[in-house]
Amino acid sequence: MSISDYPFTQEAAEQVRKAGYSLDSLLEKTSFKSVRSRAAERVLGAIGGQIPDRRANSDAEALAELLSYPLARVIVSCLDDQHLQRRYALAEAKLAFSRMKDEKDALLQLARDLGLHPEGTEALRLHFAEYIRAAHRMHAPKWKLVNRDLCEGYLTVTREELMRLLEEVIRDKVQKGLPLDVDEKVCAKLTEYLDPLRSEMQKVNASQKADLGQVEQGAFPPCMRKMLSDVASGTNLAHSARFALVSFLLQINMGSEDVISLFNTSPDFDQERTRYQVEHIAGASGTKYRPPSCATMATYGNCPGEDELCRRIRHPLSYYERRVRFLGKEGRI
Ligand code: SF4
Fold it and tell me: How much distance in Å is there from the Cα of 333 to the middle of ligand 1?
């Protein structure tokens, strides 16, 4: 295992510390230009969804790869965008996952560094507490604890599953602590890298902006407006909120494709899974679901508080219909 392939590990941090380079030297020295370029490349890759894999072929390249990670975290912090922080963590985790596929024994060493202690060689025994910590975001049935064989506090995972669990642990680890508390003077020294990254972010954000087509967004109730803005900023919605938003949009005649593309801003957007959920709610299995009532929305914590009109209706759709009628009379639509 080359530790420069996993620059978020404790071992890597220790090597960076021992190397003893100051942040100023990384920012200013000509000899570290390759480190700065690779750091910017990591962030650019994250904006686009994938960090290019560059395997080191020499000690110098390994050191550059290693040092580019903490500098990339500085760059992400200077850009100060929560959505980017999540995308960056996800992209680093995905890069690590693709590198893990080439590991053999070192996979267990990596797992230990990241706080998982699997035992065995092929069928790996993992303590359930470590499993839960790693799998907390994985909602597919096969990851649910009730669907795993649990014996004396341990369950079994395959190597492939261990890699997926490590990917999740890495994602959490990379995101932890972001944004760093970076001095403005440091960001100023990175301007030549930050400016192109900002324009790339704008380009990507503009292309992912929700197009709500024919629906009248000005008539949306506060709950739906809040959920839409969460989705646009890349925040993953809770299952109940996602259901409410999707069923609402479908009910007011937004097309399934438009609803699916709306979720494209989510950092871990899974097109197939989203398609399945949206089409299911749209009635693919025979029932077209209606969004929940205001009372149910409130029970699940999805009602952000009532405005004037909210007090007179009991359903988000009634809110929308009344507002559309009102705006129509006013000649605003
Ligand atoms: S009262 Fe109903 S329509 Fe208004 S924000 Fe709450 S859930 Fe939405």
Answer: 22
